[in-house]
Amino acid sequence: MYREQQRVCAKFNLGRDSVPIRKSSVVVVLLMMFTFAGMSAATTYTAANVKGSYSLLVNAYGGASTSQGAAVGVFNFDGVNTVTGYVTNIDNGSLDVQTISSGTYTVSANGHGSATASFTGPNGPGTWQIAFVLNSVSSSVARSLQSILINTGAGDPRVWAITATSINLSVPATAARLKGTYSVLLNWWATGAQQEAVGTFVFDGKSKVTSSFTYQVAEGTARPRSQELALIPSIPTEAVP
Questions:
Q1: How far does Cα 235 stand from its chain's mean position?
Q2: Which end of the chain has fewer CB atoms within 10 angstroms, the N or the C?
Q3: Which H or E run includes 35?
Q4: How many Å apart are CA 69 and CA 155, to the nearest integer?
Q5: Do 43-169 and 175-232 fold alike per CATH?
């Protein structure tokens, strides 16, 4: 019996007394120690995780009696604290291309960030204050940002939602970089009637784009439509600084 106990127990000497400890318990304790030693600190983020060029899609939503707004553009983040770029706005039927005259951004350790961009354009100056969170960080760079515009003003009842997607635009953009077939999903809302469409845009890499869509124009009714469009070369070409 004593020999059997020797096989399954170890003794820890504590002064004059010896405390028998089962070897299985010792193994468990050692494994727990290795586990805690292998734990890494929670991931923290900095401005370096938001770097490069990001395409923007901005939508402003309001009630049926409120004008809608939208914008597209490119923001270039330097990985430190500066943002440059431009946006093309359409607000209540008015088109306006604006360039960032000065822009800064910060990123907190928890992945939340903020940006302030001052614009100049044909319709006068303006400023965006943006709150964002990092999304899908890969190779230390956020692949997208989920954002909202927070300085809409007291007289603007709309909600401005912004999606920014990393596009790694390292050389000036040209029509040749937009070539091939792209699937498209469209949704739009009007007072008393909503419509949607699904289809394709085909870009020739030079100056033209053709479209083919199926529209839902009324409940249970679909209508196909094809159209040839010309690209408008008035949007600034941007590259990462």
A1: 22
A2: N
A3: helix 23-38
A4: 14
A5: no
- Average pLDDT of every residue of the chain: 78
Cα torsion angle, 164, 165, 170, 175, sign: negative
| Whether the Cβ atoms of residue 51 and residue 141 lie closer than 8 Å to each other | yes
Q: What is the pLDDT of residues 157-186, one digit of tens each?
A: 888 899 999 998 777 778 888 899 999 888
How far apart (Å, rounded) are the C-alpha atoms in residues 241 and 228?
35
pLDDT band, residue 70 (cuts 50/70/90): confident
Task: Look at residue 46 and give its three-state secondary structure.
Answer: coil
Residue boundaries of the structural domains of the chain? 2-38, 43-169, 175-232
Token pair listed for 36: 């805690």
CA nearest to 217, candidates 193, 185, 186, 198: 193
Tokens coding 181: 């077939």
Give the best-scoring range by mean pLDDT among 14-23, 47-56, 61-70, 228-237: 47-56
According to CATH, the topology of domain 175-232 is Pantoate--beta-alanine Ligase; Chain: A,domain 2 (3.30.1300)
The one-letter amino acid code at 82 reads: T
Q: Which residue has the higher pLDDT, 229 or 134?
A: 134
Question: Residues 111, 126, 119, 73: what is their CA dihedral angle, to the nearest 10 degrees?
Answer: 60
Structure-block tokens of residue 94: 């008015």
Joined together, the tokens standing for residue 77 give: 């983040």
Q: Are 130 and 98 in contact (CB under 8 A)?
A: no
- For domain 43-169, which architecture applies? Beta Barrel (2.40)
